[in-house]
Amino acid sequence: MSQNLAVRTEPLAVLSDAPDNRILECAVAADAQAIVTGDRAMLALRAHRGIRVVSLNEYLG
């Protein structure tokens, strides 16, 4: 069974690409440990609020 869940997130404007900021918002709201991505702008952050931003190769490392 699936369920919709609405979570209030703090709007972020860390990156120039709005969809990337939504990913960061979700990661913060979920208390994620890491974001695994191939997006170069996100990878350049290396971390945000204690959440590591890593490539797939780094994650599997």
List strands and helices in order, with pairings.
Blueprint: H1 18-29, E1 34-36, H2 40-45, E2 47-48, E3 51-54, H3 56-60
Parallel strand pairs: 1-3
Antiparallel strand pairs: 2-3
Short summary:
The chain has 61 residues and is of the alpha+beta class.
What does this structure look like?
- The protein is an alpha+beta fold and 61 residues long.
- It is 38% helix and 15% strand.
- The protein has a three-stranded mixed beta sheet.
- Strand 2 and strand 3 form a beta hairpin.
Please describe the structure with a list of short key phrases separated by commas or semicolons.
3 helices, 38% helix, 61 residues, alpha+beta
**Low-confidence segments, ≥5 residues, pLDDT <50?**
none
Structural class of the secondary elements? alpha+beta
Summed over residues and divided by their number, the pLDDT gives a mean of 93
Number of strands: 3
Inertia-based shape: globular
What is the assembly state of the chains in this entry?
single chain
What is the CA-CA span between the terminal residues? 34 Å
Secondary structure tally, helices: 3
Domain module tally: 1
Radius of gyration: 12 Å
Order of helices and strands: HEHEEH
Q: Strand arrangement, largest sheet?
A: 1-3-2
What share of the residues does DSSP label as strand, in percent? 5-15%
